[in-house]
Design brief:
This protein is of the alpha/beta class. It has helices at 22-29, 39-43, 46-56, 73-86, 97-112, 185-204, 210-232, 237-256, 261-273, 277-292, 297-307, 316-333, 339-342, 346-363, 375-386, and strands at 11-14, 32-36, 60-64, 90-95, 133-137, 149-154, 159-164, 172-175. The chain folds into two domains: 11-180, Rossmann fold; 185-386, Dehydroquinate synthase-like, alpha domain. Helix content is 53%, strand content 10%.
């Protein structure tokens, strides 16, 4: 077995009721916290609940509730100012991937300085330890609480900057399924398919290895078995539990392997058309999976055999087709829209195709795909995804 490296948070608290441990966990690493969250989490009462757990342990806190969309460098600057003004020594991220990714950037810049754009493609490497970050996801999708990756939109260039360094790994993750119960059906579907995409891409990636394979397979199985129940019956805690656990596994898998073509193409859509990351991944997954399926037939067949051991008599091709059909069927049942139905204008989309393809290739993620596309093929895939229909499923 070749040498591989695995990076994970120092500590992970997971399971029903684990949110209650936030006070004691924060107290281990700091005394004055900045909570990075959003207005939705505040309105739901989760920010105030967090306050109460911190107060029990004597932790002082301040709130930044300015995250209103996919994370941007503006949010990072605003939160960083609060850190510096109030001399906070620990950060709590409470929310979806946007809140957690914003917090990761702030944690690194607080001790290493510079602009977040400086860290793209390791132009600058964080040499000092970041502020301790306690990441608490409220959606079962990004797995950001267990990855050393942050994605921040550069508002000057309209490019989603994907940055991967060990310094961006949270110190502590608290993963509580109760926090996901209030997620709307559309969010549950989009974030769930996002997690499925993470797991699938981690498994078929050229950088996959034994550790990530085990995590990815487990995540794929949990998601395919429980996502519809979480979508249709959001108050089913057991289904929510399985989904947030799978999301964390998928995050660990891709963070230590890599993502591939779906993510490379997804980021430009988010940057230019402000489509949430999970939804844009879900929109692209069917078309990209069908494009890649021949070159990753062996790996897809392995997934198929893991999901459906009773079908061991099927050929490699038949098993791989079974996996593709399973994913397409799930997307259809989850009412995943295409870009046209989401409301993206066709003329504007066509005008942006050239830039989106260039940005996708520049990200490096497509190079990890089993079938590495040309720029022209990426443009064709964007065109397919724009009006993708599930008629043949």
């Amino acid at each position: 077995m070749p040498c591989s490296q695995v990076n994970l948070p120092r500590s992970i608290n997971y399971g029903q009721g684990s949110f209650k441990t936030v006070g004691e966990e924060v107290k281990k690493v700091g005394n004055k916290a900045l909570i990075i969250s959003d207005q939705v989490m505040y309105d739901l009462g989760l920010v105030k609940e967090c306050h109460s757990y911190l107060e029990e342990k004597g932790v002082t806190y301040f709130d930044y509730l300015g995250v209103r969309s996919e994370p941007t460098d503006h949010y990072v600057h605003e939160a960083l100012e609060l850190i510096q003004t109030n001399k906070c020594d620990v950060i709590i991220a409470l929310g979806g991937g946007s809140c957690i990714d914003t917090a990761k950037a702030v944690a690194v810049l607080a001790t290493n300085g510079g602009e977040i754009s400086d860290y793209v493609q390791d132009k600058t490497t964080a040499t000092d330890n970041p502020l301790p970050l306690v990441a608490i996801p409220t959606t079962a999708g990004t797995g950001s609480e267990a990855t050393d990756v942050t994605v921040i939109t550069n508002t000057k260039t309209d490019v989603k900057m994907m940055i991967k360094q060990q310094a961006f790994m949270p110190e502590i993750a608290i993963v509580d399924p109760y926090l996901t119960i209030t997620s709307p059906k559309s969010t549950t579907a989009a974030t769930g398919v996002d997690a499925l995409t993470h797991a699938l891409e981690a498994y078929i990636s050229k950088k996959a290895h034994a550790f990530t394979d085990d995590l990815a397979l487990s995540a794929i199985k949990r998601i395919t078995e429980h996502i519809l129940e979480a979508y249709q019956n959001g108050e089913n805690v057991e289904a929510r539990d399985e989904m947030i656990y799978a999301s964390m596994q998928a995050g660990m898998a891709f963070s230590n392997s890599s993502v591939c073509l779906v993510h490379g193409m997804s980021r430009p859509i988010g940057a230019l058309f402000h489509v949430p990351h999970g939804i844009s991944n879900a929109m692209l997954l069917p078309a990209v999976l069908e494009y890649s399926k021949v070159e990753c037939r062996e790996r897809l067949a392995e997934i198929g055999l893991y999901l459906f051991p009773e079908l061991k008599r099927l050929t490699e091709l038949e098993l791989s087709e079974k996996v593709v059909h399973t994913v397409l069927s799930l997307c259809k049942q989850l009412d995943i829209p295409n870009l046209k139905d989401w409301g993206v204008g066709e003329e504007e989309f066509n005008t942006a195709l050239d830039k989106m393809a260039d940005d996708a290739l520049e990200s490096g993620s497509p190079a990890n795909n089993p079938k590495v596309p040309t720029k022209e093929e990426i443009i064709s895939l964007y065109e397919t995804a724009f009006g993708y229909e599930y008629a043949h499923v």
